[in-house]
Amino acid sequence: MISKEVIDQGQGWCLQASVRFSGQLCGIFRSVFYDLPLRFFASLRLCGDSFFCALHRSPFSRIKPALAVVLLFFLIAATTQHPETVQLKIPAGWPSPSYDFSKNPLTKEGIALGRKLFYDPILSVDSIVSCSSCHLSYTAFTHVDHAVSHGIHDRIGTRNSPALMNLAWSTSFMWDGAVNHLDVQALAPIAHPDEMGEDVAHVITKLERSSTYPRLFRSAFGDSTVTGERMLKALSQFELTLISANSKYDRVMAGTEKFTEQETNGYVLFRANCNSCHRAPLFTTGAFANNGLAVDTTYRDAGRMKITGEPADSLKFKIPTLRNIEFSFPYMHDGRFKSLRNVLDHYAEGLLHSTMLASELRDGVVLSKDERTDLMAFLLTLSDREFCFNPDHAFPRE
Amino acid sequence: MRRTGFVLMLVGLVLQGAAQSGTTTMHVRFTPTFNNGPLQLHHAERLADGTPVSVDRLRFYVSHIALHSQDRTSFIDTACHLIDAEAPSALEVSLTVPRGIHVDSISFLLGIDSLTNVSGAFGGDLDPTKGMYWAWNSGYINWKLEGACAKCNTTKNAFEFHLGGYLPPFFNAQRIGFAVPSKGAIVINVDVAVFLEQAKLGERCAIMSPGKNAVELTRLAASVFNTLGRDQ
To answer: Cβ separation of A200 and B129 shorter than 8 Å?
Structure first.
């Protein structure tokens, strides 16, 4: 499910996501209606005869009414499907995830439900826009070639849709960090009038009425009750599996491939000029920074300041990961740069100096045109095609 | 085997009974009022100066209820409860407390603590579908009061107070506490009229984001909680 080559080299630790079966067989109930009949069946098999003959001849024949009840419960227990635990494999050498898996243990059924929800326009008010409308798996879950995305009724938003990957390590979400936890991220696009324009309580009503979802909720959570919490946690489960860690860069670091000379030059330039904010292995620190962009006069987007109210946060935006940067054009929070070349030209020639400018950029970034080309060659080694074309991430065909 | 099962069940029931025998249920009832009468939603009322006003929605969270006896905390309830003027069943909180507990004062948080605010999705009263969670900026709304007042220069004279926020310096939830008599259900009045009189409706009719105004108004909201004692 997750990229296969790099991650499991014996060093990566596994998350033992334990499965809970609330509301199902437990304690005394389990021992009376599950374990005892199980032993009884074992004893029947020893008779070497047909089931009913065995029943009559067995010492249990006097207690047939009780036996019927016991068998009924046994059948119910046997037909109850338990969610299958999924162990998320953490790439070797990566830090521990920030996401608390103990509060939302991953299961095969939970991930499948989240994946179906992710691709289902039922989340939007007009049943046209789904999460994948702006987060397409083949382009590292971003809206390729759109400076800002469009939602219901072709309404245009104000921000560039971020690429989704390695979210278990993210501590804040959205360009301004407005969302503080992966579980509650989906609430923002669902409710935004320019995105899905829907009321989350109405989404739950629609899911309850659907012919498929109650069954899927039962598979994932033990009963068919549809709640906001469960819907959000299922979406998180799917999104948490989106781990990109098998780019050429990763294979070079693992010693199985080599950079070209140009890529090596680019890597040296990267470490000298970019690494302090776009730090490996995630290629972001997750912090917010003012990277010298002039304010867009149409959007007048103040970034992080809108959330904190701090003037010092003016025009600060989340430092994005550079993984799969090849696919996530156009760039910056408002998609103002169409190409990687434009981005590097900005850092080398276009920085707007202000008191809020990130300290790392105060002395400017010196890169010749040739060096920018080499740096681009390195950035392209961060593309993870296996991640983009992983069938487990794509639209779930039934 | 039937006997074994029966005995097992009996033992289970006895154990369960024993575990519960040391506890009793204590009720904390919130009564929304307008001046001294019960609050009626969608009902024309008047402020002290005669300005027409009506309240359409009152919802708030109560969490971390603590019962005290002689300045010592004797019981803490860790749950968060959504109180909704629209739903009579959502006006009362039932606490399972030790039998014979002595209580002379109660305290609670009007709103949700910051840890809960940063810990993802929850169910029950905290489910984001309850209309008390901000989508655009993570965090719970601690107090939601909506209605209309002639003082509001807004569409349909509407006022909307969605008060919340957990980030310093604008941590919003407010601790409330007062003495209560020693017997019966604890009844707490929430006088919306006092809030509306003092909220300066001529100046602000819509506060829906965390900040200075929200903290100021939640402090005001906390001040309109009072108890007339306990219902015998």
So the answer is: yes
